Structures
1.
Amino acid sequence: MKVFQHVQDLGDLSTALAEAQEVKRDRYQWKHLGVNKTALLIFFNNSLRTRLSTQKAAMNLGMNVIVLDVNQGAWKLETERGVIMDGDKSEHLLEAIPVMAQYCDIIGVRSFARFENRQDDYEERILNQFVLYSGRPVFAMETATVHPLQVFADLITIESHRRECNGRPKVVLSWAPHPKALPQAVPNSFAQWMRQADVDFVITHPEGYELDPLFAGNARVEYNQMKALADADFVYAKNWSCPGVTRPEDYGKVLDDYHTMMDWTIDQRHMDVTRDAHFMHCLPVRRGMIVTDDVIEGPRSLVIEEAGNREISATVVLKRLLESL
Ligand code: CP
């Protein structure tokens, strides 16, 4: 594997999930793979879980790790070609990428959607420049449109609880309100991965928030949230801004004042229509907006287990990338 961005990059998903179980049994058994190899983790945006879990995964595999916060201490980077650099940006990404590649063997990139131009975001301009110009294996640590390390961890978490369900688990991805415009990376990846997983998958959101078919495919969409949640085994809550599928001019917008959307906040009333579902969220989460305190703190909440499984998903992915060197 030279690039990790989409579920297909892992090949057979059940083999990858079995590998995750193997990592869980002993996460240090491939320590020889990373000796004298360096992972460079580049953050254009903030992070808690991705930063820590990916470093830990690299250490599990015996790697050295360099973390670069591009916006704190590095030269400010220009990312567009053909511009006259007479502003505050001192270095171009097209020099910076091959320079950074001199010092490492594998590169992880976090670069969120900018919401300036839908095409730029959905073409993954930043990530693809790393793929094209670094000459190194590259993996997404949440990019403009995807967050595969997160949803791989989420799927590992669902698999751990599959046996508690009565048959094939029903997994519901539910939009929830938020005061700020958030990217679509997590819901895009969640839809893409759940469509490949052995689950009954349903998406619920207010009209106008339809995910790009590239990720949602023919997944079932139910606009009535309560109807969607009925008999769910797993409720995955997440906010996302307008993906601009039907109205490109609305891309990246919050379509309605969140005060009018608080019925979508996951509370006990929502959980009561499920089949005693587990509550899931990628974190960080805004309590009182996405979910109420009692639900996230309750016995069916898996949010900490999901975060723990970030180390497992990252170990599998880095192991596969090391094996490709
Ligand atoms: N879920 C997730 O990626 O968390 P961070 O943004 O803190 O890395």
2.
Amino acid sequence: MARVFIISNRVAVPDPERGVHAGGLEVALKSTLKRHECVWLGWSGEVKPAGQTQTKTITTGGVTYIVTDLSEEDYEEYYNGFANRVLWPILHYRLDLAEFTRRDLSGYLRVNEHFAAELDKVLEPDDIVWVHDYHLVPLAKELRQRGRHNRIGFFLHIPMPPAEILTAMPNHEKLVPALLHYDLVGFQTDGDAQNFARYLATECGMPAHIPRRIGVHDRTMRIGTFPVGIETREFTRRAERAARSSFVREVRDSVAGALMLGVDRLDYSKGITLRLDAYERFLVANPNWHGEVTYAQITPRSRSSIHEYAQMEHEIDTAAGHINGTYGDLSWTPLRYTNKPYTRTALAGLYRAARVGIVTPLRDGMNLVAKEYVAAQDPANPGVLILSRFAGAAAEFGDALIVNPYDPEAVGSAIRRALEMPLDERIQRHGNLYRALLDSDIRFWGDRFLSSLTGYDMTSAALPASRPKAVVTPTTAPPSMRPATPTEPVAPALR
Ligand code: GDG
């Protein structure tokens, strides 16, 4: 049977010594890793001086991992440079934050060539290749240039902006059309897929209607929508258990009034500064809620070595201090803000304890926090999700309180509405949201993508039950509910 090669920037190799917490991509791929013979290739996370980089192969839990180090130059130009300073901001509609240099672009192309060369050493003609995310746009082109005719698919986890934004990226014409070398290009939402199709129409002379199949050379390239989900029922069970833990009860008992919760990687796309502004407006407009609500914001740091991230951290620290200094008193802290990461189980319990989940990114491919919050709720007494219209999840979650994150007064009003929503309305909205969650359950996501890529029903290609299971959870003691220690990797570190 054909093997499935998964290629991503970072690879989550299970490490029983350290106790692994599933990151976003690993959670998404868990079922694929279990059901197919998989090889996962990508960066090891190690940065070494030039000439000392290595590529290692590790087989554990029935999955083969091929991990390759980056040189200091690669790390600076490919990862910190072109991926995080050009593609990340531009694909999140933030042209103002993009810092393009030719040097970074050539570093990006060099690392893609290197990944392709590593893959070329081990790929068999009938292997299926599934490439993930913006770090690896030109990978299929590199493989085709090496004479590879394998089925190769690409999934973009983050947004695809309109052509007017993409075309502002210097050298976009060298990069974006490279996606035509894939057999299938998948997006989170129809809007993203349409933006890509329109780029192909205006920039590459493809048919002007929204095409789903495009003839390219001797192949057909297809565009598809595959919204990422979560393991809904597993997460609900995890939240039920965690809500009874002493950690969650201690937190719950220590906060005044209703709990509102935000969980975001420290990233400008997540809209945290504007959200704090909205909370302040809510506090100003609703003095009757003073002392009756506590907003907890969990914001693990990411990409701190990039200037914009350090600056944003400073702005958020200042805004948080201002809110507590101005509106709090010795017996009430309106905002609890932390940069500590928590375990997945702790988060699940905190979501369930929160009357309001607030998710207001300025732009987000999907946003799994919104999905996790809904999955974690008690259906008999559920909390309310406030969700940005600019998160991919909004396409499936019409029953959340949908807000414009750029309008802090409207978000402030939504906070009040969420806190005051009657039980029957909360139950009805939650029921609809939960049904939407089950429809996009992550168990089917990988099979849907792979079936579409290969033209075969990949659900029936599942491996025999006797095969050793992939290790994706700690094999040591159950994870602590306390904040993760620096040796406990959590999802944000993988991005
Ligand atoms: C990209 C796209 C798309 C957060 N804090 C902690 C922690 N997390 C977990 C959350 C969630 C994940 O990290 C974050 O996922 P998001 O989807 O919200 O955001 P990105 O990291 O930006 O992910 C996004 C996603 O890819 C998948 O396609 O939805 O749009 O930007 O699972 O729970 N996990 C732990 N401790 C924390 O403190 N353990």
3.
Amino acid sequence: MAGKITLTMIKPDAVAAGHSGKIIDMIIGAGFKIQAMKLTRLSNEKAKEFYAVHSERPFFGDLVKFMTEGPIIAAVLEKENAVEDFRKLIGATNPANAAEGTIRKNFAADIERNAVHGSDSDENAALEASFHFAGVERF
Ligand code: GDP
């Protein structure tokens, strides 16, 4: 069922600021069904693994530090065209460039502390969903 799921994380900045409820409300209001959801915290090793594609980037160390500083909410979301529609809902990586009404425009501080993650392809959505959830945790 390619195209039907995406993986999100409400990042430590947004969880700590108490924005999780409003963000989840926006996600459901945009037509996404929650297949799986949990409050969890990434270890150093797991954060490095999740963001391995960025391991050579100058911001990698800061990104891992940020993503491990506190709990996150991970979720698998289902919708037709899930990856693309969710990227539209969250807005540009840098909130300064994010469209009005997007989650990052509303809740992100800067290019690093940008409130939410959204998978960038169907292939990565499947990998990232398996990274966070066992099959029996998905409904
Ligand atoms: P995304 O797909 O929109 O999340 O963006 P990327 O995959 O390019 O980057 C992954 C995450 O790394 C982003 O969501 C940010 O938290 C962080 N990040 C991206 N670019 C930068 C940057 O230039 N500086 C810093 N400090 N963090 C960045």
4.
Amino acid sequence: MPPSIHELSSQFAVHGLKFEAGNGGLLKAVIRTPLSQGELYMQGAHVTNFQPEGQKPVLWMSEKSVFETGKPIRGGIPICFPWFGPLASDPKAPGHGFARTTLWSLISTQALSDGSVAIELQSEINDFLVKLDVTFAQSLQLTLHVELKKTATQPATFEEALHTYFTVSDVRQIAIAGLEATGFVDKVDSAKVKPATGKSVLFDGECDRVYLDTTATCVLNDPGFRRTIEVAKKNSSSTVIWNPWIEKSSRMADFGDDEWPGMVCIETANVGTNSIQVSPGQSHQMSVTISAHHVV
Ligand code: BG6
């Protein structure tokens, strides 16, 4: 049984954070402070809104997103874990793992003296104890901690992604800097491994690229919104860039046919050859800090 709004509120409401029934009746935390506004669904520990004071929303949400127990939410920051994409050993297993469709538990909430709000959640997935720390400040920070339980009998390998959907003025007009020197796996061209382009990422068709062995900060330059968004990460060696463009978005029931120009995903990840192996009792943590800046 999920906790009630009343139970969550009496244990975890703090200055700047309250609990509400969100879309589909799913429970969410709503953050409103002088620094930013935000929203986090308990299902999937899924951040669905982040808007720094004086700025447009940073995260994109599909108008067609489903909000149902056990179904993924389209937009915001889904957590992909313990695998990314389809599971090679079981094609029927849910894409991107089941962290994003699991109900997470709250561990703590805090209103910090600098005006930010911090939320800590956890979930048990297979033999892993998974925690997410989210801080809503002028920037948004997420840290995913993954611990293999001491009781596990052997080391385990996992993939992970903070699959962040950004809202953009028009994906055809933006550029993403930071990946110029990195080759990539091109998932729209038979997963061929392609060399570094030496240029920013620009968009003129479907894009689904897995950049491996890169810890670089990415900067999304959006002249239409006169802003840049910086995506800085720690302990993440993969970055995934995704826009489904026309045909793929028309095949997805939870993605509006005309919505693709308004979004792009920059995903902070450890996938493929960057998968993480942990021994029983050992843990790994990966973080991202997202900040938006006006361009004058
Ligand atoms: C991206 C993958 O990370 O997520 C794409 O690289 C995939 O291949 C996309 O289409 C969305 O996945 P899903 O399972 O949320 O539809």
